Each structure stands twice: as structure tokens, then as C-alpha cells.
């Protein structure tokens, strides 16, 4: 019978912590559903977007990042249209590369790189890591979030010092 108080405690804690960030709870929930809606729209638009492409869809505060690889320019354009048509999407950054999809090994390296970056951000008390989303594709690190310009600079400097980063793309929304 301890279950109900535990559920209530976890729910209350998540509401309190949810209020600590600069996004509303509604925006955080929307950001959880937007990628799935974009992916569904892409599948409806053209099967090659699903079968011959590697596309990562990320959303932060209604800003969508399309990253990855697709073999044809028209597929890149279709992916962007699919993202723009989703309710709640305010802006789309189409960073898809028109090349053959990356290998499983490259994706594993990207995951490792993202983990290293996030770990270093968490360890640095001067970086607002809870307000920064890190996505790595083909060695390119994309940084999204709602931050001040000094916070963005600190995060970018940290990423520059991580071995294996090929390029940094800042897609921040600035609060100052």
C-alpha cells in the first residue's frame, strides 16, 4: 500500500523540478511527441525517408533539428516539409547531409561522443546542462537549448575540447 504515496511523491517532484527550467511543462511534453509526429509524416511522405535514410529528429522548445544522412536532395526537402507541417513546430533546422547513411560503427562513435560531452557538462557547474540538448551525427555536434550567450559560449568551449568532434553547430535560442 506504499505505492500510492510513492507515485504522488514522484509526480510532485517532477512538477517541482519541471518548474526549475526555462521551458514550461507543456513545452517539455510537446517536445516529447514532436519527433514521433515528424517521423510519421516522413513515412507518409516517402518510404525512402525511412528505408534508405538515417534521420534523427530532435525537438527543444518547438525547434526541430533534422540531422543525419539521406541519399537524395529531394528526400532532404521532403523531410523538412514533413517537420514543418507538425503542429507545435516553431522552427526547423534541416542539417541533413545528402550522402549515404552512416555506418553502425560511426553511429556508435557518435553515441560515445555525445556521452562524453554530456558527462563533462554535468561535471561543470558553470554549464546549464539541463537546458542544453546535445546531438551528434557523423562527428558533427549540434547544440540546442534556451541559454544566455555566456552559457552558450561556455558549452561551446567545452565541446571544442572534446576529442573526436569534427564540427560544432550552435542552434541555441538566447534568453538575453
TrEMBL record:
The cross-references to SMART domains, in alphabetical order and at most eight, read: BON
BON domain span: 30-100, 109-176
Keyword field? Signal
Q: What Gene3D superfamilies does its record include? A: 3.30.1340.30
Instruction: State the superkingdom.
Output: Bacteria
Q: What is this protein called?
A: Osmotically-inducible protein OsmY, contains BON domain
Amino acid at each position: 500500500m506504499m505505492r500510492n504515496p510513492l507515485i504522488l511523491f514522484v509526480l510532485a517532484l517532477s512538477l517541482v523540478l519541471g518548474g526549475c527550467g526555462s521551458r514550461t511543462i507543456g513545452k517539455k511534453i510537446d517536445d516529447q511527441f514532436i519527433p514521433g509526429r515528424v517521423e510519421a509524416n516522413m513515412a507518409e511522405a516517402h518510404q525512402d525517408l525511412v528505408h534508405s535514410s538515417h534521420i534523427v529528429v530532435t525537438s527543444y522548445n518547438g525547434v526541430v533539428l533534422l540531422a543525419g544522412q539521406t541519399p537524395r536532395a529531394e528526400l532532404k526537402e521532403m523531410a523538412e516539409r514533413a517537420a514543418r507541417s507538425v503542429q507545435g513546430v516553431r522552427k526547423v533546422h534541416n542539417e541533413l547531409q545528402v550522402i549515404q547513411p552512416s555506418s553502425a560503427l560511426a553511429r556508435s562513435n557518435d553515441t560515445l561522443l555525445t556521452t562524453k560531452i554530456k558527462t563533462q557538462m554535468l561535471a561543470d557547474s558553470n554549464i546549464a546542462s539541463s537546458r542544453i540538448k546535445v546531438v551528434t551525427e557523423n562527428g558533427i555536434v549540434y547544440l540546442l537549448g534556451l541559454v544566455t550567450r555566456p552559457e552558450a559560449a561556455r558549452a561551446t568551449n567545452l565541446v571544442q575540447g572534446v576529442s573526436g568532434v569534427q564540427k560544432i553547430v550552435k542552434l541555441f535560442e538566447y534568453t538575453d
